[in-house]
Amino acid sequence: MSVWSKNKIIFGLAIFLVFSLAIPVNAEVDSPKKQWKNGIPVEDIICKTGLELVIRINGAPACVTPTTAEKFQRLGLASIPIKMKDMENKTPTSKIIKDNSIQFKDAQNEITNIPASGRSFVNFYITDDDLNIAHTGVEIIPTSGLLEFTINGIPVKGPETMVETGPDTGVFFAKLQLPETINGKPVSQEDIVQVRYLDQSDAAGEKRVLVKSIKLQNTFAQIQSSSDKTRIGHEFILRLYEPDANLDSKDIDRIPISKFEYRGEGGIRSTLANPKFDANSSYLLETGENTNIFEVKIKIPRELDGKVIHIGDMYEIRYIDTSTPSGTSEKIILKGKIGLN
Q: Do 46 and 102 belong together in one domain?
């Protein structure tokens, strides 16, 4: 090989390395809208390097430059959220907002089940030790100037006070009753309820805004996996919160796995009753008396009905709730991706 040819190869490799190293590590981060559509809580959406998450007044997320984020917040066009998951293990002065979620005992995530109907209640818990002044008594704090509530970006009347959950807890409870209508339209599925906590003084003595957003649903049922990453042939727990399936408060109830459909790329369709899923039971079994939580262990197989499942494939596990408060049948969907580890 000539010296010229060798130099061309070396030059080409150098150019390749320069461009490879210039690609940001999160170049494949989905858009805020896509992450939100895939069920990621709005305040937990990830932005690409150099951009900052804001929540618009209609509850929708956006990734903008830090300068734009500050401008939007100053003009009241959007809020810069504080990520709640990042704050739960900090000092007692940390500020946390939680809603009336169902917390699984062994799960990392929370499942929110807020019924989409007027006059329903949404319970919020705010942790702020700065408001805990009378350490021997229960504080009752006016919410004016502290809490703001919106539905689809439209302000709604919230509770006038929030009450400490006990002496010296620093955790305060507020109950929001949903209105019958918003701008003349009935409150319905996919409407966004947002609570903004106007923290007057954080650990550094500065003001900031904490935001919690949730989507209303027509069903109480919710589904999740025990693992953020699904690997082919590796066991994971599928969990369903379904109070309507809790038929006997003294016994453990069960839901047939045949009621759950797996949908994968390439037209793959099958119920979890397919032996390929290697389920440890023919049912999702309630985790205890009157828990409303049902579980089964399954594995994603290498192939289903002659069709190969590949690493990187997206999939859905679907459950149809036929006993909703609205009297409609609603699809409950868990979305996942086949990963390497």
A: no
* Contacts (Cβ under 8 Å, ≥6 apart) of 9: none
174 and 95 both lie in a single domain: yes
**Between residues 149 and 36, which one has the greater pLDDT?**
149
Are 34 and 156 in a shared domain? no
Buried b (16+ CB within 10 A) or exposed e, 272-288: bebebbebeeebbbbee
76 torsion bin: left (phi>0), alpha (psi -120 to 50), beta (else): left
Helix %, strand %, coil % of the chain (to 5): 15, 40, 45
Q: Judge if 235 and 312 occupy the same domain.
A: yes
Q: 299: closest CA among 228, 210, 232, 238?
A: 232
pLDDT for residue 65: 87
Query: 60 with 164, same domain?
Result: no
The whole-angstrom separation of Cα 329 and Cα 341 is 35
Query: Can you give the CATH number for the domain in which 237 is found?
Result: 2.60.40
Domain that holds residue 41: 1-80
Among 170, 190, 215, residue at a domain's last position: 215
Do 197 and 98 belong to one domain? yes
What's the number of domains the chain is made of? 3
pLDDT of residue 251: 77
Q: 192, 175 in Cβ contact below 8 A?
A: no
Q: Which two tokens stand for residue 56?
A: 């618009």
Three-state SS for 67?
A: helix
Phi and psi for 73 in degrees, rounded to 5?
-65, -40
Query: In 95-153, where do the E strands start and end?
Result: 96-99, 101-103, 110-112, 121-127, 140-142, 147-151
pLDDT in tens, 95-137: 555 555 443 333 333 444 455 566 677 777 788 888 878 777 7
- Residue 324 corresponds to which amino acid? T
> Contact at 8 Å (CB) between 158 and 120?
no
Domain termination site, one of 54, 80, 106: 80
Dihedrals phi, psi of 47, to nearest 5 degrees: -105, 160
